[in-house]
Specification:
The complex is a heterodimer.
Chain A: H1 4-10, H2 12-20, H3 27-46, H4 48-51, E1 60-70, E2 73-81, H5 83-102, H6 111-130, H7 134-143, H8 145-155, H9 160-189, H10 194-199, H11 208-222, H12 231-238, H13 241-266, H14 268-294, H15 299-320, H16 323-354, H17 370-384, H18 390-403, H19 412-436, H20 453-471, H21 474-498
Antiparallel strand pairs in A: 1-2
Chain B: H1 4-9, H2 11-28, H3 36-57, H4 60-65, E1 67-69, E2 74-76, H5 78-105, H6 110-128, H7 132-150, H8 157-188, H9 193-201, H10 207-225, H11 233-240, H12 243-268, H13 273-296, H14 301-320, H15 326-357, H16 372-375, H17 377-391, H18 397-411, H19 415-441, H20 452-467, H21 472-482
Antiparallel strand pairs in B: 1-2
Helix pairs in contact in B: 2-3, 2-6, 3-5, 3-6, 5-6, 5-12, 5-15, 5-20, 5-21, 6-7, 6-12, 7-8, 7-12, 8-10, 8-11, 10-12, 11-12, 11-14, 12-14, 12-15, 13-14, 13-19, 14-15, 14-18, 14-19, 15-17, 15-18, 15-20, 15-21, 17-19, 17-20, 18-19
Classes of the chains: A mainly alpha, B mainly alpha.
Chain lengths: 499, 487
């Protein structure tokens, strides 16, 4: 058995243990420990790549250690990666050190607690993307709530408590329904192991639709799919910068990942049946998110609502169920994590300098902070889907895939969603114009410090990957495609069975 | 004629009772300033009883067949030893809770510990009761010392009110229980469980009387357990009674009462399940809903925990619903036992923190916990673990407890009940999190006592709730083995 995945998941705990024994006064020691640990975790996740067989759609590096017996069904420590998981794992381990680095000047109070929660959060996220046992998945899924709840509630903005509790309760509402479905599956099939359950689908085919909906409730809230998104703006706006980066970059992907990992392989017939409804909600989310984002006076809120819109594309791709659309969705999950992560990082820098995020308080600052302005422009364009940058590749593939999707069977979904691409360009460029261009409106902004070396180090790696995906996405698709094609095949068989 | 077997069967209880009587005398010679000695001696007595109980429980005659004594009046089987061990553990925790608290509040009396031992003996006898009359007697033995203890903070008015309320309603519920026993006797001509089982299997003399009697026994026990709609006394009594008494009885009485309920229902009343299971289901649902809703609006931490304990009884009762369904019942009952252990750990962690924060005049409001997480990190962590475990967030013992119980409910076919349970758990997250929010996210400068035993209790209980969650298997195995003979 290969223990590398277990090692990977547990690796942030090393830093956690070291920090436990450091005193609060040793702030830089704590920060370095957390950063180095997360970099080591990133290194471990890169070490998966050489041995990963991109042609193979099966789970790799699979590990299964028995843990518990519950009335005949065993709960085991099962981990494994396929192309989809691998993308998400890399995204997580890539963004975590950057997010940690971004806090070095922003978080000066209770540094120890902050870094501890951050590393625990990373363990939870990695577990979610690697777990192949439903109960284990649920444990990691719920576990991510606790560190994030504290990160928002202790280090957040003015309405942090409201936002933290709302975040917790919304997510938990979905989770309890999912738990019910998991318990049902365990009873019906006598196992909680995901690959086994997927093989024995016939055992619970009768209750498929309900089970699908219970899982979908948990995932749709996390994504968030319109109209379940109301926790997101609050959580994003109140969270500290690093929290927002991880929240947007990784935690939302847990929802879309959940659809791909559980809903499609376990309940393909229900997925086909509900696809048009899911697509309608996704398209509404795209348009609604874009319009609401356009109306925001607060930059961070604008970025938050843009997430609703962008994840609408991902959900549309998942609903379309064609190989292209699914591959586009997975890539767009990565893209959104990178672009929105970078947007939050830069917004955080502005906030640290001026302690305001209202666009009206800025204006014309490009002259003062040229480098930051340039980086923001690239990030905004990548988020808006400019050809040559990452967003375009993902959105284009999704739109193409859903245009020809036999399950959706209508070009209107893709057609209306395309408007969202235009709207994204509008609100992001208007935001850029209001903040960076025009005459310098406020004298306080004359002395704004341009981006520092450390800050540069947080944003530039993200933008390099953004360019890479934009110009040469093939290596990413090579990793994603086999797993996605297998999923699409499965769903197509199910669709044929229905029609 | 008293036989050796009789003595051995009741030995855990006897050790406790004899020691309590002796301690009552010894206490007279302990000077007023040194009543701590009484506590230590009481703890020694409990430990001795625990030792006897554990030694007996490993004997095959106990674990496999169960020892029946006093002509079928009392029994010691795996189930009773399991519950006994849990009850004694609770009482030891109760002493840790009381040791410094009573001193600080100026109500340290030697009788406290002796009363506690008598009540503990009552709980254990209740678990070992094999005859409805013994069950009734042990409930009285359990309750009467508790009435006194609830009023221990005399002349504080709310403590006296609490004692009186508990006494009046407790007596009322005893009447129900007794009447129920009488009706069962009318229906089956027996009061011993073995006789009732035999009679129920061969069609009771009067099935209607039997059913009404069984229902009234349930009502009587439901009062003790504070199941809705018999819960009205609990918040007031829990708030008024001295905190160590509340914390201890919130766990001990419930463990004993539920164990007795389990024994009677699973062994003697399976034939009535067509009528009783729906009632149990309705009571469980009402208890979960009312308990959790009630807790949402509380500002006093003791009242909040009181409602939370009501809600937890609801979850436990949910496991009772399929009690006559042969395939499901073993999972359900083992799940209930497991849940009880988790509940005990969570409760003592929470109550220890409450006892540490409480002052002579106040310190009972949730807002009094503001800033606790920062100033007293260990107490803060203990309380957080307790709250998360009560909510059922992984990885805590509370999560596994709920996992097993909801699974049993689903297995028994009550999807609605499981759904109610899960949704009320969501509701409970709101008020449990409120405590965490106040501790970590609101500024404040609380005064907590740095008393060794309370702190140890808080940390040990929290650590138990956290660490056992990584290895829930052995505990569940233990619970599953304990109920073998019951089924």
């Amino acid at each position: 058995m290969n223990y590398i995945l277990l090692l990977l998941t547990a690796s942030p705990l090393v830093g956690f243990l070291v920090i436990l024994f450091l005193k609060e006064d040793h702030k830089s020691a704590i920060r370095w420990t957390a950063l180095l640990t997360s970099l080591a975790t990133f290194g471990l996740s890169l070490a998966l790549l050489p041995g990963f067989d991109a042609q193979n759609p099966d789970l790799q590096y699979a590990l299964r250690i028995p843990w518990l017996q519950v009335g005949g069904a065993d709960i085991s420590l099962s981990l494994g990666v396929d192309g989809i998981s691998l993308m998400m794992v890399l995204l997580t381990t890539f963004l975590t050190p950057l997010a940690l680095l971004s806090t070095w000047e922003a978080i000066t109070d209770k540094v120890r607690g902050f870094n501890i929660f951050f590393l625990l959060l990373e363990v939870g996220m990695l577990g979610v993307f690697l777990a192949q046992d439903l109960v284990l998945f649920y444990i990691f899924w719920e576990f991510t709530l606790i560190p994030m709840y504290f990160l928002i509630g202790i280090w957040g903005g003015a309405r942090r408590i409201y936002a933290a509790v709302k975040f917790f309760l919304f997510t938990m509402f979905g989770s309890v329904l999912m738990l019910l479905a998991i318990l049902y599956l365990g009873l019906a099939a006598g196992t909680f192991n995901l690959p086994q359950l997927a093989e024995q689908r016939a055992l619970f085919a009768g209750a498929q639709l309900w089970l699908y909906l219970a899982f979908a409730a948990a995932f749709a809230i996390k994504v968030p799919l319109w109209p379940l998104h109301s926790w997101l703006p609050d959580a994003h706006v109140e969270a500290p910068t690093a929290g927002s980066v991880i929240l947007a970059g990784v935690l939302l992907k847990m929802g879309t990942y959940g659809f791909l990992r559980f809903n499609l392989p376990l309940f393909p017939e229900a997925a086909v049946q509900t696809a048009p409804y899911l697509a309608i909600l996704a398209v509404i989310g795209i348009i609604y998110g874009a319009f609401v984002a356009f109306r925001q006076p607060d930059v961070k809120k604008l970025v938050a609502y843009s997430s609703v819109s962008h994840l609408g594309f991902v959900m549309l791709g998942i609903a379309a169920l064609t190989p292209q659309a699914l591959a586009g969705s997975v890539l767009q999950m990565v893209n959104h994590g990178l672009s929105t992560g970078a947007l939050f990082l830069i917004v955080g820098m502005l906030y640290e300098r001026r302690h305001t995020r209202a666009m009206a308080d800025f204006g014309g600052i490009w002259k003062v902070v040229p480098v930051m302005g340039g980086l923001m422009l690239i990030t905004a364009l990548s988020s808006a889907g400019l050809p040559g940058l990452n967003g375009f590749v993902g959105e284009f593939t999704i739109l193409l895939g859903s245009f020809i999707s036999p399950v959706l069977n209508s070009p209107w979904f893709a057609g209306v969603a395309t408007i969202g691409v235009i709207l994204a360009a509008v609100y992001l460029l208007v935001m850029f114009e209001k903040v960076f261009m025009g005459p310098l409106k406020h004298d306080e902004n004359r002395a704004l410090k341009d981006i520092t070396a450390r800050e540069l180090l947080t944003v530039v790696p993200v933008l390099l990957v953004v360019l890479w995906i934009g110009l040469y996405p093939q290596p990413f698709f090579n990793l994603i495609n086999p797993s996605v094609e297998r999923l699409a095949e499965l769903v197509q068989t199910a669709a044929l069975a229905i029609h | 004629m008293l036989t050796f077997n009789d003595l051995v069967t009741l030995l855990p209880v006897l050790v406790l009772v004899v020691w309590a009587v002796v301690l009552l005398v010894i206490d007279l010679f302990i000077p007023k300033a040194r009543k701590g000695w009484t506590a230590v001696l009481a703890a020694a007595g409990l430990a001795a009883s625990l030792g006897v109980n554990l030694a007996l429980s490993s004997q095959p005659s106990v674990a496999l067949e169960g020892r029946v004594a006093f002509n079928g009046m009392a029994v010691l089987d795996g189930f009773a030893s399991f519950a006994n061990a849990l009850i004694i553990g609770c009482s030891l925790a109760g002493i840790a809770l009381a040791y410094d608290f009573l001193k600080r509040m100026g109500m340290e009396r030697g009788e406290y510990y002796v009363l506690m031992m008598f009540s503990t003996a009552g709980m254990m006898l209740l678990v070992q009761a094999y005859d409805l009359i013994v069950m009734f007697l042990s409930i009285e033995l359990l309750s009467i010392p508790l009435y006194v203890m609830a009023g221990l903070a005399r002349p504080r008015l709310d403590s006296e009110e609490s004692a009186l309320k508990y006494f009046l309603l407790g007596t009322f519920s005893s009447a129900f229980l007794l009447y129920g026993i009488a009706l069962i006797y009318g229906g089956t001509a027996r009061t011993d469980l073995q006789g009732i089982i035999a009679s129920a299997q061969s069609a009771p003399i009067n099935p209607t009387l039997f059913l009404i009697g069984a229902a009234m026994v349930f009502v009587g026990l439901a009062f003790k357990l504070s199941a809705v709609p018999f819960h009205m006394w609990a918040p007031d009594v829990y708030q008024g009674a001295p905190t160590p008494v509340t914390g201890w009885m919130a766990v001990g009485v419930k463990v004993a009462g539920l164990a007795a309920l389990l024994r009677v229902f699973v062994m003697a009343f399976p034939s009535l399940s067509a009528d009783l299971s729906p009632v149990l289901g309705a009571v469980a649902a009402a208890t979960m809903i009312v308990g959790n809703l009630g807790a949402v609006v509380q500002n006093n931490i003791k009242r909040l925990l009181a409602y939370s304990s009501i809600a937890n009884v609801g979850y436990l009762l949910m496991a009772f619903v399929p009690y006559a369904n042969g395939q499901v019942v073993s999972d359900a009952v083992a799940g209930a036992l497991f849940f009880m252990v988790g509940y005990a750990f969570n409760s003592f962690a929470a109550w220890a923190v409450v006892a540490a924060v409480e002052k002579k005049d106040g310190g009972q409001m949730i807002d009094d916990f503001a800033g606790l997480g920062r100033k007293y990190p260990w107490l803060g962590i203990a309380m957080t673990v307790a709250m998360l475990s009560f909510t059922g967030v992984p990885l805590t013992l509370g999560f596994w407890g709920k996992f097993y119980i909801f699974r049993a409910a689903l297995e028994g076919g009550s999807v609605t009940l499981a759904l109610i349970g899960l949704l009320t758990s969501l509701l409970s997250a709101y008020y449990y999190l409120r405590v965490v929010v106040v501790m970590y996210m609101k500024p404040g400068d609380p005064e907590a006592r740095r008393e060794p035993w309370v702190n140890v209790l808080a940390i040990v209980s929290a650590a138990g709730a956290l660490l056992l969650a990584f290895f829930p298997g052995p505990l569940l195995d233990l619970a599953t083995k304990a109920i073998l003979r019951l089924l």
